[in-house]
Design brief:
By secondary structure, the chain is mainly α. The chain is built from 5 helices and no strands. Helix 1 packs antiparallel against helix 5. The relative contact order is 0.23.
């Protein structure tokens, strides 16, 4: 997972981490742990991120499937 690209996608949308944690239904602390790699995103959370961030298929591959 390319966490730097995920953070960049969030920033490009002008969203705050609070917005993302609310969309995912997790606490800001839980989101932080996911963003630093302490815990992994669930499949349902990835689907939500794709919708909220309006990610293209290329962005999805870059963020979630390519190793970085």
């Amino acid at each position: 997972m390319n966490r730097a690209e995920l953070r960049a996608a969030i920033a490009r949308k002008g969203l705050l981490m609070k917005d993302i944690s609310e969309a995912l239904g997790v606490s800001p602390t839980t989101l932080y742990y996911k963003l630093i790699g302490r815990t992994e995103f669930k499949e349902s959370e990835i689907r939500t991120l794709v919708k909220v961030l309006a990610l293209t298929p290329d962005e999805v591959n870059l963020i979630f499937w390519d190793e970085a």
